[in-house]
Amino acid sequence: MSKTFYVTTPIYYVNDAPHIGHAYTTIAADVLARWHRQRGESVWFLTGTDEHGQKVLRSAQAGGSSPQEWADRLVAEAWQPTWRDLDISNDDFIRTTEERHTRRVQTFLQRLYDKGEIYEGVYEGPYCVACEEFKLPGELIEGEGRDAGQRLCPVHRRPVEQVSETNYFFRLSKYADQLLEHYAAHPEAVEPESARNEVVQFIRQGLQDLSISRSSFDWGVKVPWDDRQVVYVWFDALLNYITAVGYDASEPELREKFESTWPADVHLIGKDILRFHAVIWPAMLMAAGLPLPRKVFAHGWLLVSGEKMSKTRLTGIAPAQLTGYFGSDAFRYYILRAFPFGQDGSFSWEEMTARYTAELANGLGNLASRLTAMTERYRGGVIPSPGEPTEAEQRLGELAARVTTNADAAMEKLDFYGALAAIWELVVALNGYLTEQQPWQVAKRDDAASQQRLDAILYAAAEGLRVLAILLHPFMPRTCTTLWASVGGPEALGPLAAQPLAEAARWGRLPVGARVVKGEPLFPRLPDESPATGA
Ligand code: MSP
């Protein structure tokens, strides 16, 4: 049984609707999943929602609902529709209030308790509900103005709460050395390097045992041996990565699913939740004797006005605000093309508009419409014979092979930005090729040699577009499906999703006689009234 490529996103809190920061992680995971599928691998892509804890409970109370009703409504009306609109191709969607999850969380906890990994103690210290995290006094910042005299969470800049409770503790401290050994032996297990350094630094300072239950509210999974306590929301949430793929399942198919899927190949997360994923989570797995995830990749923040975008700080932009104007694929493209994955980057309407126009509409869109229009006009919509390729066509073929290799290597490193940059070399080269070869001039000459030359140019351009449709499909699934149809791909070569990446750049795959389809422009002119200006 071969290992399935297993990629996850964080499960998102349902305190509110998604913003484009959440969409960033989910789109990256989707592109990665689609890329691996296009490589012909078996893939499992999981996302979902984190529904327990005080953060969600308080939002529900403020909204006048029970937490379950609140979560049900947000999942059905906000989270799932957003992922649908963005063409997210997740294979499963886990909710932490589902019985398949809560039951397995309890089993996991009970096993750790029985092994002596969990003990009862008293917790006293500051807690940030927005992070759902116990803080160290040294991390806090002094409040000013309205918050003068209070100590604030450095992430949310809101006052922390003082917690004093009898809780259950997980023996996290005893895993420090084992974690350091693991990261020394597997440096690729936390990326980028800056994230790994941060984690290693943090562990070297020594770890404290972790309070993993709460008794002052009851919105959570009950501790199996003590129903006055609920499981700490992060302990509950992290387990989604195994509960969703059949950890502790009794059904044979699910057991097999777990065997072929776990460990995860990539947990994609934002750097805000790195310690949970690279310290607590592997220690939990070590305690349970389960294999550790192969990679945790912490990407940077999407900044708006120089700050991490967040609902709490009222800087959240809903994905629909962008997709309604630019379309879903343009948003998927922009968000991965604007800045390197792993670094912070700013979102800007102006930059998105400029890239849409230059790279998508005038770059890729124009290329496709020029080719289909010319093939219709000069060859009745039929892809002509390539004839004798000249050096220019050979160069295109070589470039197609090179960008495919480079894009695949970049994707292997989760360098979405680098992959798009590589693929765009082909877009630029094809536009340059048409400008140089001037097929519209060649078409004016009636002699046989010129007409053969025209055939060769049209064929080469169509081939280039065929390659682009395959390489860009994981990034822009809708547009590429249209592009694939426009070069006659479906009839000539079958569905786009079935085109293996390894074969993408084999020049000359498009059969002579394939019929181009002239459709709507791939990237229509943007409406004059931009929502950015409030018009
Ligand atoms: N529920 C926890 C995660 C549990 S995973 C076992 C949580 N949820 S969250 O709703 O706050 O979403 C966190 C994730 O959303 C971040 O880790 C990040 O991936 C993404 N982002 C949220 N805001 C973001 C930005 N402004 N920029 C980039 N990503 C952002 O934490």
Note down, in words, how this protein is organized.
The chain is 49% helix and 15% strand. By secondary structure, it is an alpha/beta fold. It has a domain of 156 residues: Isoleucyl-tRNA Synthetase, Domain 1 (Orthogonal Bundle), CATH 1.10.730.10. The strands form five sheets. The protein has a six-stranded parallel beta sheet, with helices on both faces. A four-stranded antiparallel beta sheet has the order 5-4-8-10, with helices on one face. Strand 12 and strand 13 form a beta hairpin. It is elongated, with a radius of gyration of 26 Å. The model has no long low-confidence stretch (mean pLDDT 95). The site of 5'-O-[(L-methionyl)-sulphamoyl]adenosine has 21 residues, from strand 1, helix 1, helix 7 and strand 14.
